[in-house]
Amino acid sequence: MNVLAFDTCFGAVSAAVRWQTAGGGWELREAYEERASGHAERLFPMIAEVMDGAGLAFSAIGRIAVTLGPGTFTGVRVGISAARALALATGKPVVGVTSLAAMALRAEEALGEQLGGRPLIVVVDARRGALYVQSFAAGGRETSDACLLAPEEVALRIGPEPVAVVGSGASAVAAAAHGRAGAVEALLPDLQPHARTLAKIAIGLAPIAPVRPLYLRVPDAKEQGDARLGTSNHEPR
C-alpha cells in the first residue's frame, strides 16, 4: 500500500511518500523544511515535489497519513484540512497519530542505544507557561494521552525510574524535576515531527473517520487523569 504523509503542526513542514516497487521493495521520497510561518503556502508544493519525485499519481496512493496535533492552531488546521481535501478527492482513507507520537518515534531513531530502554516523554513549548506532553514506552507505544501541563506538573507525574525527555520543553521539565529521585535527562531540544516517520508506520494504523484536529486548548478539551508519565501502565488509545 502506497502512503502519502505530511506534517505541519509545529516549526516545520514535511511531506513523504512511501511506495512499493514492482519487485516488492519499499522506496521513500521525502521533503522537510523548518519554518515559523507559511505552512499552508508550502505544504501542497512540497506534496507535489515528493509525488513527482516518486513518479506516482495521486490515484496510486492507498492511504493518507497526517499528524493530528497538538501544535499551533494554524499548523494543525493546515494539516487536517489538507488530509480531508485529499481524502475527498481520492476516496482514500486517512490515518494519523499525535504530533508528539511522531516526535517520539523520530527521537528513538536519533538516540538509538543512548535511550537505553528508558521511557520517553515528549514535551513541546505551548507558550503561556504550558507544555504539550505525552509519554511513551519503547517502540513508540503511548503510555499517556497527549495533554497540556506546566513544567512543574510534568515533573510531579514522572515516576522514580530514569526517563529521557525530548523536545523544546525538555530543559524546563529537567529543571523542575531537579532533586527528585528519578534521573531526568533532557535531549533533542530542536526535535520536530517528520512525515518520513509517519509514512513508515501508516500501514499499521487504523483509518479515522471523520478526521478531527487535536488542539488541547479548546474549551471542551478532555480533562486529563492522574496517570504517571514515563510508566507503562496506561493502555494505548
Strands, helices and their partners?
Elements: E1 3-7, E2 12-20, E3 26-34, H1 39-54, E4 63-67, H2 73-90, E5 94-97, H3 99-111, E6 120-125, E7 131-136, E8 147-149, H4 151-157, E9 163-166, H5 170-176, E10 184-187, H6 195-201
Parallel strand pairs: 1-4, 4-5, 6-9, 9-10
Antiparallel strand pairs: 1-2, 2-3, 6-7, 7-8
From the structure above, extract its key features:
237 residues; alpha/beta; Nucleotidyltransferase, domain 5; 5-stranded mixed β-sheet; 6 helices; 10 strands; disordered C terminus
Question: Could you explain the architecture of this structure?
Answer:
Residues 219-226 and 232-237 have low confidence and may be disordered. This protein has two domains: 3-98 and 192-204, ATPase, nucleotide binding domain (Nucleotidyltransferase, domain 5, 2-Layer Sandwich), CATH 3.30.420; 100-187, ATPase, nucleotide binding domain (Nucleotidyltransferase, domain 5, 2-Layer Sandwich), CATH 3.30.420. It is globular, with a radius of gyration of 18 Å. It is α/β, with parallel strands linked by helices and 237 residues long. α1 (39-54) packs across α2. It has six helices and ten strands; from the N terminus they run βββαβαβαβββαβαβα. The strands form two sheets. It has a five-stranded mixed β-sheet with strand order 3-2-1-4-5, sandwiched between helices. The protein has a five-stranded mixed β-sheet with strand order 8-7-6-9-10, sandwiched between helices. The protein starts with a strand and ends in a 36-residue tail after the last helix.
